[in-house]
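pinging the channel bc i need a second pair of eyes. not urgent but kinda urgent?? the chain im working w is below, pasted from the shared doc
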Amino acid sequence: MLSKLVCFYAKLIATNSDFFKLNWILLDFIFLVKEVKHILENVVLRNMMRESMHIKKEAFEAWRRVIEVTLASCSADILPKDTRQTVIAELLQDSLSKVHCKGY
C-alpha cells in the first residue's frame, strides 16, 4: 500500500509545479506511517507480555486452589497438624524456587 501511495505522490510531484511543497507532504506521510507502525508493534508486544503474565497468574491461582482444597479435605487423623505445616512449607519452598529459577 505504501508503494502505491509513493507512486501516486511521485506522479503528482512530476506534474505539479509546486515540487517542494508536495515533497514535504510525501515525507510527512511516510514518517507518519512509520510512526503508526512503530506504535502498533509496541502495542502488540505489550499485549503479548500482559497475556503471558495473566496466564501465569491464573496458573498459580489454580494451583493455590488445588492445594487449598487438598489440605482442607484432609482430616486431622489423615494429616496431623505438624505434618500439614511441613507439607505447606515444602510446597511454598518448591513453588518459590521454581518461580525464581524461571524468572517469572
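so The first helix runs from residue 2 to 15. and The chain has a mean pLDDT of 80. — does that match what u expected or am i reading it wrong
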